[in-house]
Amino acid sequence: MATGTHITYHKDNQRGTWYFRLKYADGKTGQRAEKKRSGFASKRDAVKAGQEVIADVVGGVLPSRGQRTFADGYERFRLHMQDRLDNGSLKPATLDGYEQHYRLYLEPYWAARQMDDISGDDVRALFRELRTNVGHGCQGIAWYIGRKVYELAVVASEVRVSPFSKCGKRSDVIGAPKRRIERDQWWTPDEVAEFLTVLADNPHHFGDLWRVQLGAGLRRGEALGARDSVIDWDARTMVIDRQWTHNSQGKAYWSTPKTAAGNRTVPLNALALDALRSARTTRNEARMAQRHIWDDELGVLFARPLRENRHNAPGVGAQVAGTLPHPNHVTTNFREYLARHGLRPIKLHGLRHTFAAGAVNSGTPLEVVSKILGHASIEITADLYYHATPEVMLAAVDQLDAYWTGENR
Fold first, then answer.
1. CA distance 211 to 197
2. What is the pLDDT of residues 351-363, one digit of tens each?
3. Among 229, 222, 231, which residue's Cα sits nearest to residue 267?
């Protein structure tokens, strides 16, 4: 069936007859086309004639209102998202994520149900069930998919009303998100110093990458995207314009940053700059040693040499010289490294949290931190990282004392 095909039925009140309007993609030209037929004595007659026309022009039959299952509605949603993927407004990983969440959280409950039979009470019941074993983020994606499925069906006149408009506010059904990054998800200055000391005494082949994440507040994929062409060594900046990520099937690929604000230029402190220089030296030495087989047109700093034998530690070498490691290898090695050396465990993304929390708590203005991190708004940064720690509160009242006594006026 052609993408975007749908039919609507209407009554001509002046004449007392029914008509239908069919919109579809022409199989020969690919352009949008429309057919309209009128003069039917009843809606049943219009529906029968409409289905016959659909069979002629697109080779299939569209279920009439009341006959569409939620699985049918999801197929329309999927085609809509595929259009967005084709025009560049949606990322492959996002579409993969929608598919995964539909299969896990919506298909088992609603796939075979008629869309007209699902009520607001059913929506609330579903999310009560999901709350018992699914995180808020996954619930939010499932909510978006379900709401969008019905939104598209209402526009196509295939259902009369969306149950998502009858079940109350989203926040009342699935709760408000817990966005704040808690203290156990990032390291204190003493823990940062301990990590760097351990790393200096016990080098790791991903050590420079971890130091870049810590020093510049980069996401894993952004750090892996470091290349010769995006680093200005004199200005101490790095352009973030792409990231090395993977889809739900585990296939690694290049993508644009997570959000539009993610396209940015970040400043490089001494830690990040030293790590990038070290990575460049390591890469250059490996490239020189394997120059006859090195395959790296982009000049990525964290490209790896060819694995020489099967007894090397996981992630040391690449199957193809000059290629990047799989993002998950970086995460697995980080977790194992912390456990092996007795460091307090945090997630790899916790290095970014550590940078952000440290910047905020050291007095860096929120708007500056927000731009460095590539957040879409300063409110996101404030919600995530602005912790009123005892140290920050003491510093605040000390500054007030100094102001009142004239020391800093």
1. 12
2. 999 999 888 888 8
3. 231
